[in-house]
Design a protein that fits this description.
By secondary structure, the protein is of the alpha/beta class. The protein contains 9 helices and 12 strands. The structure holds adenosine-5'-triphosphate and magnesium ion.
């Protein structure tokens, strides 16, 4: 974990810890002491040319994220949400500033180190992106196997029970509903044992009731496995399931 000097001046971070543990003087403790952050973004810029002009898609963004924190990321279309997830996933590099994850400045990693880093990042997509020739079980194991892990039969059964997919392991993706396909996507990300799970509008294709259930499941599983969850959504109702909500506006945190 990373120690960020200067103590915890961040009200949001303190609120998160206050919610997580019942410790009488926790808030005062936060303010007095240096803190451990799992992820620390400092003065991050991501800049691209737009019509001949430079545009800061991510604009001097600083953010500290704690172990096991769960964040709903809101913001208008084009505000930079997917770009921020891609920076955290190591798929893009900032033009200025630092992104430190678990004591590593990910901008300075070489290709091999970056590949190792990316193995620990789980990604859940809006359009599921299951592999159509593979059944549910093989789709669920795909990411883990790619990264050299071999989930045991017991792990697969346990995960499929949690996801309500125990009777579907031999089914093909086209035989599943949208909600079931997304649960396979969650299983695929979690069997890979990530430390950080990035979900970009994971419920964008689902109706309100299914979306609510998927987000509840995602949050419970991440909490159980102590995985940081950052979920992009356009739905305030879904964001209200999270204690931490961040709003991006023009590449900056707005709330
Ligand atoms: N490689 C690039 N070159 C130029 N502009 C880019 C590039 N990548 C993203 N952008 C621009 O950056 C802005 C932010 O894009 P991003 O995909 O992060 O938005 P978003 O908040 O995820 O939007 P949405 O809610 O629609 O998914 C957009 O205006 C997009 O056109
Ligand atoms: Mg997006």
């Amino acid at each position: 974990m990373v120690t960020v000097s200067g103590g915890c001046k961040n009200k949001r971070v303190c609120e998160h810890f206050t919610a997580m543990v019942s410790f009488k003087h926790w808030t005062q403790f936060c303010y007095r002491n240096d803190f451990f952050f799992m992820i620390a973004l400092k003065n991050v810029f991501f800049t691209r040319q737009d019509g001949g002009l430079k545009r800061h898609i991510i604009n001097d963004l600083s953010l500290n994220i704690l172990p096991s924190e769960q964040i709903a990321l809101l913001g208008d279309s084009g505000s930079g949400k997917t770009t921020l997830l891609n920076l955290l996933a190591g798929l893009l590099s900032p033009d200025a500033g630092t992104i430190r994850v678990n004591e590593q400045n990910i901008s300075t990693l070489n290709a091999n180190q970056l590949a190792i880093y990316r193995r620990k990042i789980g990604v859940i997509f809006q359009h599921y992106q299951l592999l159509s020739p593979l059944n549910v079980k093989d789709n669920m194991c795909f990411q883990a196997r790619l990264n050299g892990l071999s989930p045991s039969e017991e792990e697969i059964q346990k995960m499929s029970r949690k996801l309500g997919l125990e009777g579907k392991l031999n089914a093909m993706p086209e035989q599943l509903s949208g909600g079931e396909q997304q649960r396979v996507g969650i299983g695929r990300a979690l069997l890979n044992k990530p430390t950080l799970l990035l979900a970009d509008e994971p419920t964008g294709n689902l109706d309100a009731a299914r979306a609510h259930d998927i987000v509840t499941l995602l949050k419970n599983l991440c909490e159980e496995q102590q995985i940081i969850l950052i979920m992009v959504t356009h739905s305030q109702r879904l964001a209200d399931q999270f204690t931490t909500q961040l709003v991006l506006k023009d590449g900056q945190i707005n709330g």
